[in-house]
Amino acid sequence: MAVLGLGVGPRGASHSGARPEPTSATTLALLLRRARAAGIRVLDIAGGADTEDACRAAGARDLDVRWITRTSAPVGDEAALVAGVESSRAALGEIYGLLERDPSALCGPDGPGRIQRLEDLQRRGWVSKVGLHAQEAADLDAVMSASYPQIVLVPANALDRRLPADGSLESLSRLGVEVHVHSTLLQGRLLMDPAHIPGSQGALREAVAAFQTTAAAHGKTPLEGALGFACGLPEVDVVIVGVETLEQLDALLAARDGAKTVDPEWFRGIGCEDPAPLDPRTQGCAG
Length: 287
What we know:
Mean pLDDT: 91
Distance between the termini: 19 Å
CATH superfamily: NADP-dependent oxidoreductase domain
Number of domains: 1
Strand content: 5-15%
Shape: globular
Radius of gyration: 18 Å
Helix content: 25-40%
Oligomer: single chain
Largest sheet: 8 strands, parallel, barrel
Number of strands: 8
CATH class: Alpha Beta
CATH architecture: Alpha-Beta Barrel
Order of helices and strands: EHEHEHEHEHEHHEHHEHH
Number of helices: 11
């Protein structure tokens, strides 16, 4: 079963589906330490240098965790890439995973140079694994090679089963790629009262209602159902869930036991005919 990782920094909508207020430095420090004390070792940063600086102020370098971060420079500007990784290391300490933020650019003329530079950084020992943040199968197919990527972050949840269903995750797993998934809660929408989902997203409203009804029929809360679906995918190594408050973290930790007995097959027949609300690029990047 996949392990739970924590998303840190601005990640779109909150668990309620609303846009969150910025997390205070004090709350961030408490979040990081409480998560680590609860056994969470993977922390994924989506917010760039500002979030990394906030984590440094919160004592990030003192935590025994695996930090996942993103490239901060456009493909082609390799000097800025190196400078960005130096800044990340100064803020966080050891970097476990460095993900290319713009996988589509790897298909362009500067793509091979970017991949080579990422692998050079790994050989130097600056990062343990290099990979990419992909949104669809095409992002993966275009750049797969013998050595890259070694780690990927992709969206998957009980309503968005594109990559598990088309065999992409299974192919990555067979190649030894470490698979992380995000958008686990569909940016909080899987936990919302369906009546609060806009009428313009009627297909999503119906799908969320069906998901919650199915989870309840098996004695699970929506959070347990959503977390259990993602953690139960056999190809997945780490499930990333973003939190902004201590209350959200506590709810997430409390749901772990119930999630262990969720069968992803419970939700096989549930889907959303409109793909737009499922796309993390239009709804926020994690959660």
